[in-house]
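#lab-general

N.A. 3:47 PM
ok so I finally got the sequence cleaned up, no stray characters, all 353 residues accounted for. can someone with queue access submit it? mine expired

B.Y. 3:52 PM
send it over

N.A. 3:53 PM
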Amino acid sequence: MEILRPALINIHGRIYRKNAVQEESYEEEEDDYSYSEADAEQCLDEPCDAHDIQQTEKGFRCAIDVPSVLYKYIIGKKGETRKRLESETKTSISIPKQGVEGQIVVTGAHRAAVASAVTRVEVLIDSFRRKQPFTHFLSFALNPPQVQEGFLSFREQVLEHCGQDSGVDVSIFQNPAKLHLTIGTLVLLSQQEVTRADELLQQCQTVIRDITEAKPLPVEVRGIEYMNDDPSAVDVLYAKVAVRGGSDKLQQIADRLVECFVSAGLMERERDRVKLHGTVMNTLFRKDPSAEDRGASGRPNVKDREAFNARNILQMFGEVYFGAFELNSVQISQRFSTDSTGYYSSAGHVTFS
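B.Y. 4:20 PM
back already:
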C-alpha cells in the first residue's frame, strides 16, 4: 500500500482511509486496521456524524446492526479485540450471543468516544466482511427454453468432436437451467442485509426503465470466448450476449446497477465496466456443479482447477448460435440455491417493462 495514496473503503456511503497495522485476531493471525475518515463529499455541507448516538442518563449510547457471523471478529481471540477497543476508546461494547441476530451496543460517558468506537467497529467489520465468500449476485437469466436447447446441442457436439481434448468432459459444462450473466457479487450476511439489497434494487427500477424505454430487450446469445491468454489452458468459456440492433442498453443497465450498489457499500467494483459473460464451461464445476466464480478475472482458485484445451472448441464453435429471446428482468440470485424452474432462488427482482 502506498503511504501517500492509502486505500479508501466505503462503509454505508462514508469514505475511510485505511492505515494497516498488525493486531491480534479471533482464530488466526489477520491484519487489523486503524482508520481515519476522509473528507468525503457528503460531509462538505453537513457534519460527518452519521451515527445515531443517543444521550442517556449515564452518558451516550449507539446501536449498530451487525450480522451474527461477524461477532467473533469484534470479540477477538479470548475477547482481546473487544477489550482493546473498549480500553482505547473508554467505552463499553455489548455483543449478542453467537448465532443470535441483534445489535452491537456501544455506551460511554462522552459522545466522541462512542462515535470513535462505533467507527472502529464498523471498519473492523468491513475488513473481515471482504474476506467472506459472496452469498448473492446480480444476474440476468439466460435460460429460456430456446437458449437451453441451443446450449444442450452445443454441449453434445463439443463432447462428440472435442471430447478427447485435454480436460474436456461433461462435468465442466454449466447447468442449462442456470445459464446467466453475472453483473456483480454481494456479501449479504443477514436477512436485514438481503432486504436492504432488495430495496436498493427496487429503487433502480426507474433508471432501468428509462434505459429500456419500459420495454423488454431483444437479446441474442451467439459466439464463445475464453478468459485467459492461452486457449490450450482455459478455465472459463463463456457465451457472448448482445442486444439486437447493436444497442448497448444491456451494458448501460449493468454499469448503472454496479454504480448504485458500489455507492451504497454493498458491492466492490472489479473493473470500470461490467464484463458481461454467460458461462457455458467452467473448470470449477468438476468438483462442485454449483460453483460460481467471484468475478470474471479468468483463473481464480487456480490450485483447485484443472484447465482444458479449448483450441478445437473455439475453432469449430466460435460463432455457435444458442438462441434469441426478450430479456425482461434482473434479479438478486442466491448462491448455492435452486428455485422451482431450476434457476437460482431470487432474493429480489425488477422488470424492464
